[in-house]
Amino acid sequence: MTPLLSVENLSWRKVTKTGLFQKPSVFELQPVNFELQPGETMAIVGENGSGKSILAKLLVGAEIPTQGDIYLNGEKLAPDNIRERCLKIRMIFQHSQGSLNPAITLGSLLDEPLKLNTTLDSKERKEKIEQTLTMVGMLPDHAHYYRHMLSEGQRQRAALARALILNPQVLVADEPFAALDPSVRSQTVNLLLKLQNDLGLGFVFISHNLGIVRHISDRVLVMREGRVVESGKTNDIFTWPKTEYSQKIVSAYQTLTTKK
Question: pTM for this one?
Answer without folding.
Answer: 0.90
